[in-house]
Structures are given as C-alpha cells and as structure tokens.
Amino acid sequence: DQQVKQNSPSLSVQEGRISILNCDYTNSMFDYFLWYKKYPAEGPTFLISISSIKDKNEDGRFTVFLNKSAKHLSLHIVPSQPGDSAVYFCAASSSVSSNTGKLIFGQGTTLQVKP
Amino acid sequence: GAGVSQSPRYKVAKRGQDVALRCDPISGHVSLFWYQQALGQGPEFLTYFQNEAQLDKSGLPSDRFFAERPEGSVSTLKIQRTQQEDSAVYLCASSDQGVGNQPQHFGDGTRLSIL
After folding, report:
1. Among the CATH numbers 3.40.440.10, 3.90.180.10, 2.60.40.10, 3.40.50.12780, which is that of B5-114?
2. Is B39 on the interface with A (CB under 8 A)?
3. Distance (Å) from the C-alpha of residue B105 to the closest C-alpha of chain A?
4. A41 touches chain B (CB under 8 A)
5. Domains identified in chain A, total number
6. B45 and chain A in contact, CB less than 8 A
7. Chunked in runs of 10, what are the mean pLDDT values of chain B (115 residues)?
8. In sequence order, what DSSP letters do the residues of chain A get, joined into one string?
C-alpha cells in the first residue's frame, strides 16, 4: 500500500513560469511533510518542510501548501529556472505511529524546466 | 561542514558474496537512517539508530541484512549472501532529531549491483 503518492511521473515547464508538484497521502497520522530534490547520481537534497499545524511554508522561490482535509500537499516553484530540473520527492513522517522519524517517500516527479 | 559521506559509491558483487556499506553521518547528529532505493522508486526505510542504539529495524527485508553503529557515529550496513534483488542504491541519512521535527540529510548513496 502506497501511503504517499505522486501521481505525475513527469512535468515540463517553461523557464520563468510556475512549477506545481503534487503529492497525496493516505495516513492521517502523518504530521510532518518534506520535499526533496534529487539530481542524477546524487542523494536527495532537502528543500522545504511543513508541520501539520501549518497550511503554508515559504522559503524563497519555494512554497509548500498543505491541505489536511484533502490529505494533499503541493510544492510551488516561482519562477522556475533550468537548474530546478531534477526529480522531486515528497516525504512524510508520523510522530504518533513512530518515534523514529522515519520517512515514507512518494515515487518522485521528474521536473524539466525548459529555457 | 561536511555532509553525510558514504563509501563505496559503487559496489559490484557476485551473487552469494557478502558486502559492507559505510556511512559517515554529519558530526554530532544523533539520528541515523538507512534507506533502499530501487530504480524509478522513492527511498524505502530500512533501519534507524539513535546514537548507538538500533531502535527500529522493521524495514530490513531479511535476516541477511544487518546494520550497526557501535560508537554512535559511523554506521555499517552489511548484506550477507547477496541476491540479485538486493541490487539498489543504499542511502544513509542523519538528522539532529533531538530537537523536534528536523529534516534528514542524505549522502550520495552506494549503488550496489549483484551479478
């Protein structure tokens, strides 16, 4: 059972426009959510996170939105740059069902930003 | 400061051989995680250490997988009698988990190929 789902395997956006990456989850116990970016042959790099007590968190060009009732989160990148081209993973953890902080990852979305 | 370091970056072994993968976490990080990433998938949790204590090994796929962190710093993931389905990228992550929700920081992984 896939508890965290990224239903779009790929996304292509023009440079300067907004990129919106989506993620759905099924476990209502998740209370901490993160986005990671991954380049080929490198490990995932932490981008931004959000706690379940918030519905928005912003860091520069990156904003994460959380809709708990829909069990949905999204990552907005504005403006998109060619260097943003990478695989993006959303991940979630639960402090209630696990005291380890282990992350459950989605399958990833490949973002291509065209110059 | 230095990030999470993993070695070797690539490992090729024949089926049935034992392998050992090393992880050097960020200095001072209490929490250490191992994940397995199959091609085209998100990372999947294997095991978790808090200092030298292995508090969660629920993700280890079989008793051929063994992990240790004897001095609460460097960790080793050992796979005995390797099989072809063990081929994957093995990622190590560390975090300063003792202060509430903290992001995990990943190494670049070890790509293991079993022939």
Report:
1. 2.60.40.10
2. no
3. 7
4. yes
5. 1
6. yes
7. 91 98 95 95 95 94 96 96 97 81 93 97
8. --SEE---SEEEEETTS-EEEEEEE--TT--EEEEEEE-TTS--EEEEEEETT-SEEEETTEEEEEETTTTEEEEEESS--GGG-EEEEEEEE-TTT-SS---EE---EEEEEE-
